[in-house]
Amino acid sequence: MAGTDEESTDFDVDALEGSAWSVARLNAELDAVLTDAIDRFPTYVYGEISDVNSYDFGTFFELRDIDDEAVISCIAWSQSVATFEQPLEEGTAAIVRASVDFHAERGNTQLVVADYWPAGDSARTQELEQLRSQLESEGLLAEERKRPLPEYPECIGVVTSLSGSAREDFVSSVQARAAGVTIKLCGATVQGENAVPSLVGAIQRLERDSSVDIIVVTRGGGSDADLWCFNEEPVVRAIADASTPVVVAIGHEDDETLAEAVADRRAMTPTDAGVATTPNMDSVRQSVRQVERRVESAYAALAEERLVEYQHRIETAYSALEQQIAAQTATRQRLSDLDQRIASAYTAIVETRLTTLDQRIDTALRDIEHAAETDAVTAQAVQGRVGDLEARIDRAYQHRVDQELSAFNARIDNAYREMEADAKIEAGTAEARRLRIVVAILVGLLLLGAALVVLFLI
């Protein structure tokens, strides 16, 4: 069998070189065939307009089959575009009047459009608008819902094709700005029938990774048909439901896909996505150095200002202290002078008071001596008067006593005689004793009265 394979691949290249067509000959033949068959092509073609790019000389766009993935490139020259009743709008189902044009140099076939008429929205466009309305009603397109991206992410998860240039562009952009950021690539199909489940699975895998700070969904541009998977509801919902901030960059500037609309940030290209998700560490370092210089300058200025302020405060405090010391010195001098004045005044007052007191004492002594002499004379006089009074009292007492005794004796005699007269029957011993008692009492009373008279006279 192996020998058969070797025989089948063993042929004379030199012999075939003369019969093989060159690219130019092939393209020329194709051009000739298409030119000869021009009558076989329709004048009008129906499809959906997409990927419109306008220039001064004309407008390039694609016409996509309404029910299939078939696409053909179109060009409308500026003079034709000027006659269109309505501008070319992506997503519009339209009928174009065109001719087939083949470029032999590049081997490209396209339609040269002379006119076009919108034929109503295609089913896909209607579905897109319905989904957009649903997302708006749920608030998923609101600007206030969009979250800010981490300023200094440590890990970025990237959903893209592993074979495309988008991966290299994004990685290069990130590494040029922040080489220390970790990039986790999660490969996915970014166009075609398998794109939707592949994109959803990749986004969800990165969403479950707690180390990922930002998710980037990106690809390197393409036609509307190639990018339609980013309008599919599963992809849009996966991005909207992610708790991690999401950046979508699909390299398509004309229209915003729904994936970009619900994302937290939209970027035009993979390179722009790298710029949007990472800080420029060179700029950060430069800013830090500028801040450091500003801090140092501010610190130096503040320190100088504080030193001048402290120096002024110290000088002011020193001056105030000197003034206080001078005031205290003056006060102490005044106190010393006052103390001397008080001492002198006290001495003078004490001496004056002592002199006055001595004089008063001398005067008082003289007065006392005079009073004593006067009292002595008075005492002698009083003693004489007392002696005279005593004599007079004695005489008066004696006279009174004598009178009283005489009167008493007379009364006694009278009483005795009366008692003798009255007590003739009872003149016994008992009566006599009773009379003696009465006499004794009367004598005591007489003596008491005399004593009272003496005391009264004294």
From TrEMBL:
Does the entry feature the keyword Transmembrane, yes or no? yes
Domain of life, source organism: Archaea
Q: Which UniProt keywords apply?
A: Cytoplasm, Exonuclease, Hydrolase, Membrane, Nuclease, Transmembrane, Transmembrane helix
HAMAP family reported in the protein's UniProt record: Exonuc_7_L (MF_00378)
**Pfam family of the protein (one):** Exonuc_VII_L
PANTHER family from the UniProt entry: EXODEOXYRIBONUCLEASE 7 LARGE SUBUNIT
- Its Enzyme Commission number? 3.1.11.6
The record's listing under InterPro entries reads: Exonuc_VII_L (IPR003753), Exonuc_VII_lsu_C (IPR020579), OB-fold_nuc-bd_dom (IPR025824)
Q: Biological process (GO) annotations?
A: DNA catabolic process
Q: Domain Exonuclease VII large subunit C-terminal spans what residues?
A: 140-410
Coiled-coil positions are none
Keyword Nucleus in the entry? The reply is no
Bilayer-spanning residue ranges: 437-457
A GO term from the CC aspect: exodeoxyribonuclease VII complex
Recorded protein name is Exodeoxyribonuclease VII large subunit
Which organism does this record belong to? Natranaeroarchaeum aerophilus
Q: Which residues form the OB-fold nucleic acid binding domain?
A: 21-115
Q: Which gene encodes it?
A: xseA
An example of a GO molecular function for this protein is: exodeoxyribonuclease VII activity
